[in-house]
Amino acid sequence: MTKQKQIHLKKQMAPYEKSDVQASVWQIINTIIPFFLLWFLAYKSLSISYIITLAIAVIAAGFLIRIFIIFHDCCHHSFFKNRTANKIIGTITGIITVFPFSQWQHDHSVHHATSSNLDKRGVGDIWMLTVDEYIAASFWQRVGYRLYRNPIIMFGFGPIYQFLIVNRFNRKGARVNERINTYLTNVSIVILYSLMCWAIGWEAFVLVQGPIFLISGAAGIWLFYVQHTFEDSYFEEDENWEYVKAAVEGSSFYKLPKLLQWLTGNIGYHHVHHLSPRVPNYKLEEAHNNTEPLRNVPTVTLKTSLSALRFKLWDELNKTFVTYKEASNYMKNRNKKEIA
Fold first, then answer.
1. Which of 242, 245, 263 is nearest to 254 (CA)?
2. What three-state secondary structure class fits 299?
3. Number of Cβ atoms within 10 Å of the Cβ of 153
4. In terms of CB atoms within 10 Å, which of 56, 219, 268, 324 comes out highest?
């Protein structure tokens, strides 16, 4: 894709970058109210059967992901035209999803500005090594990396570590306003959870909130993982890195069934979102359908996305993800050539 075509493609997003107040307010209503209703039903079902509670929790987790998408759009100032409105709603939805608004907004902005840039990894992204980096790593670095990329660790313990623990602390160098927002979020979470435990008992609260948090957290990490870890992805060193190519080729089009697409706030159109973060989630599908170059990007489905679990390292030579075994074979072949 030439520079001129990239600029033209970016300009094609302009009509979709304006938020619709009515659509945003309606999304808040049809997302947050059902979530609290489902939470209440899950609590009431504890006296009947915990299996019913878990079934309701799965649905509630879907709505919690949708609340996170509202939070996510507010961080990009795309949910409302007014920046103050975005910060207020973003902070409130951040409390519900246990994410500090200002801190995550900073890290996520860095992610957008450096996504797929091999020389600028480390903020707001998933830890990824290239084949050469993995080969050069020490034994314990490899062990740590393998543990990190293990599905049980990433999707099981990941939400607990990242969302409940890491999110509670300010990043180094954070400005005063960002620190205050993190403290406000933490205090609000403590007050909210304490009131809930006082009202229904801590056991009931954990039995309901626990599975909702773990299911939504695992699903959220999975969505982020598969949106940047797929066979035909794009990664380049800084000197060759291009923003539009990183957006369109380095972010997947995750084609989901309509119900899951709705619950996940159209975030499957991740290539559109990275191309223009100012497009609100409820306009992503429209932008995709009306822009021919975006319709031709590689498509990932529920079935094909499972193959992403095999992708562990980035092969810079062949521009593709590889497994540990493939990387090991690569290392053996290279050693043989060096000996010869």
1. 263
2. strand
3. 13
4. 268
Determine the residue type at 6: Q
> How far is it, in rounded angstroms, from Cα 48 to Cα 177?
46
pLDDT per residue as tens, the chain (340 positions)? 677 777 889 899 999 999 999 999 999 999 999 999 999 999 999 999 999 999 999 999 999 999 999 999 999 999 999 999 999 999 999 999 999 999 999 999 999 999 999 999 989 899 999 999 999 999 999 999 999 999 999 999 999 999 999 999 999 999 999 999 999 999 999 999 999 999 999 999 999 999 999 999 999 999 999 999 988 789 999 999 999 999 998 998 999 999 999 999 999 999 999 999 999 999 999 999 999 889 888 789 999 999 999 999 999 888 999 999 988 887 776 665 555 4
**Domain membership flag for residue 328:** no
The structural domain count of the chain equals 1
Whether residue 97 is contained in a domain is answered as yes
- Single-letter code of the amino acid located at 43: Y
The residue type of 171 is: R
Tokens describing residue 300: 């990932």
Residue 96 falls inside a structural domain: yes
User: Is the Cα torsion angle 111, 150, 160, 34 positive or negative in sign?
Assistant: positive
Q: How far apart are CA 71 and CA 66, in angstroms?
A: 9
Between CA 181 and CA 158 the distance in angstroms is 23
Q: Which domain holds residue 84?
A: 3-129+152-311
Evaluate whether residue 29 is within a structural domain.
yes
